[in-house]
Write a sequence for this structure.
């Protein structure tokens, strides 16, 4: 009789298997057509499935290094057996809340689904060896300056090009801190809806609802821990406070980006790369009544939830621009502020966007900077003379931040006021870059516009 597998572990196994099949540069945990966690799971299983799958992808480099020792260099096949081994090994080595026996039992059952008794027996033998030595230090050593790059990949579980880059740019000590920051369970940042409640009042109300939040570094931000045993995003989003529109999920670094727009009553503001809409609603909160927020994304389907969020938060509707024609129409009546939250390498948020650590490459970085430069050129055409443009990324790479805006500002006719880059700090804030630019109030009529 086949062993029963919990719905959460089954869902995590299926999405990890799909991740292993995909190419690293395109692999994702779920998609719009196949969302993850699956909507059919209850709240507890959704949270567990997400935690397990993200943990496995986050630690794949380390887990594979251990498994290769256990299998004497034999790479597990097929992908379903590999995923079962990764899931079991992760729970044994990193997930202290799961008994080792249960981790082995369910991994064996999952391997049997795709490889019958042979795969089940192989998985059982490998994981039982690991259970005899469940201490990571007995398999993987902390790499030093003289160790091979492969040793750094095995311990820190990030791709080799990214590790090499960070060691070169920052030195080993800072690189270690960045790599460690990518390997923690991410904190959950909340943005208090100050149109409805003060932060101290929200803290007290969340405590009554069983959520232990603390003040964040921004005056309207809160932090919810994500260590085992603490409520995750699923629990927080089930509170009456969330249903009443008293807060949104957003990190302090992103709230600070919106502050730099210098918003005021009656302004017209464009969020140019708006999906999934968190910054658009933050702008709407800051503007209050009388302002207008336009939201555009090259994939308009990703903005489908914005109208519902505005209603939940009690905000005037954000105007979603459905097409490039809608966007181009703003040239006839330019806006006062533009936010360009550009697509990027996500190297400042690897704790929460775990797949990005495996897709980084210098070639991809070059492609992204070309897209970012194009976006700046498009944005300036939609901005009134004297208007402010804020450019931001979730990247900590200089090519996507200060180097890009310093090079592009004079090319597209913008004045650069400030530029900053924040490194990720677990339990405090995500990493990212931000620059404030302005279109000159009085332009040379003979100057060539982009």
């Amino acid at each position: 009789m086949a062993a029963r597998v919990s719905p959460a572990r089954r869902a995590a196994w299926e999405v990890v298997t799909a991740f292993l099949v995909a190419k690293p540069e395109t692999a994702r945990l779920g998609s719009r057509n196949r969302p993850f966690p699956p909507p059919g799971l209850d709240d507890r299983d959704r949270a567990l499935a997400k935690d397990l799958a993200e943990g496995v992808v986050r630690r794949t480099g380390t887990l594979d290094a251990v498994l290769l020792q256990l299998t004497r260099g034999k790479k597990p096949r097929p992908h379903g057996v590999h995923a079962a081994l990764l899931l079991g090994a992760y729970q044994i080595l990193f997930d202290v809340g799961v008994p080792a026996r249960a981790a082995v039992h369910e991994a064996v059952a999952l391997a049997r689904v795709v490889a019958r008794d042979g795969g089940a027996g192989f998985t059982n033998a490998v994981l039982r060896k690991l259970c005899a030595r469940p201490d990571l230090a007995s398999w993987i050593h902390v790499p030093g300056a003289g160790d091979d790059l492969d040793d750094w990949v095995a311990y820190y579980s990030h791709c080799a090009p990214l590790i090499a880059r960070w060691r070169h740019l920052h030195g080993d000590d800072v690189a270690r801190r960045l790599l460690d920051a990518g390997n923690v369970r991410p904190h959950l940042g909340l943005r208090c809806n100050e149109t409805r409640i003060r932060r101290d009042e929200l803290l007290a109300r969340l405590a009554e609802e069983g959520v232990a939040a603390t003040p964040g570094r921004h005056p309207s931000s809160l932090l919810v821990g994500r260590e085992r045993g603490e409520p995750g995003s699923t629990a927080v989003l089930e509170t009456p406070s969330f249903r009443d529109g008293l807060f949104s999920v957003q990190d302090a670094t992103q709230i600070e980006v919106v502050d730099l727009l210098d918003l005021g009553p009656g302004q017209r503001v464009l969020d140019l790369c708006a999906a999934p809409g968190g910054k658009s609603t933050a702008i709407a909160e800051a503007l209050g009544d009388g302002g207008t927020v336009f939201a555009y994304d090259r994939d308009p389907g990703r903005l489908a939830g914005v109208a519902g969020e505005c209603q939940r938060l009690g905000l005037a509707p954000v105007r979603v621009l459905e097409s490039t024609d809608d966007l181009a129409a703003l040239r006839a009546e330019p806006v006062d502020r533009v936010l360009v939250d550009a697509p990027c390498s996500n190297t400042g948020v690897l704790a929460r966007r775990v797949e990005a650590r495996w897709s980084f490459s210098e070639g991809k970085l070059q492609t992204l900077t070309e897209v970012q430069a194009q976006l700046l050129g498009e944005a300036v055409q939609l901005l009134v003379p004297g208007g402010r443009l804020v450019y931001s990324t979730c990247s900590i790479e200089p090519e996507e931040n200060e180097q890009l805006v310093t090079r592009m500002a004079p090319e597209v006719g913008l004045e650069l006021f400030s530029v900053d880059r924040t490194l990720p700090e677990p339990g405090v804030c995500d990493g990212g870059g931000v620059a404030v630019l302005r279109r000159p109030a009085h332009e040379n009529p003979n100057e060539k516009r982009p």
Summary: The chain has 18 helices and eleven strands. The radius of gyration is 24 Å. The mean pLDDT is 92.
